[in-house]
Amino acid sequence: MQYFVIGDEDTVLGFSLVGVFGMQATNVEQAQRAWDKALEDPENGIIIITEDVADMIRPVVDRYLFSESFPLVVEIPPAHSDGKQKDLRALVNQAIGVSL
């Protein structure tokens, strides 16, 4: 199982440093293209997407977010958010309901 990240440039770059492939999205068209690319590979079991990009394609994301089908979708705060951030492990644990 692989991860795929969709988000701003800093988020995608940061994840690429640990070997996670992804695509940058700054508008609806890029977000949809990145989402479709993530779904092309059945090995992508977890899609990590920043909240702001997920909001661009909310109906599409919600179909997976609120279903039992794969891939698992984990929304994370964007790189430059003002809110308190959880670490990725905590977000995945919350999404799947078990502790990794």
Automatic annotation (TrEMBL):
Please verify whether the record's keywords include Ubl conjugation. no
- Any keyword Transport? yes
Task: Name the coiled-coil region(s).
Answer: none
For molecular function, the Gene Ontology terms on record are: proton-transporting ATPase activity, rotational mechanism
Q: Which cellular component terms (GO) are annotated to the entry? A: membrane
Q: Which UniProt keywords apply?
A: Hydrogen ion transport, Ion transport, Transport
Cross-referenced SUPFAM superfamilies: AtpF-like
The record's comment on protein family reads: Belongs to the V-ATPase F subunit family.
What protein name does the entry list?
Archaeal/vacuolar-type H+-ATPase subunit F
UniProt source species: Sphaerochaeta pleomorpha (strain ATCC BAA-1885 / DSM 22778 / Grapes)
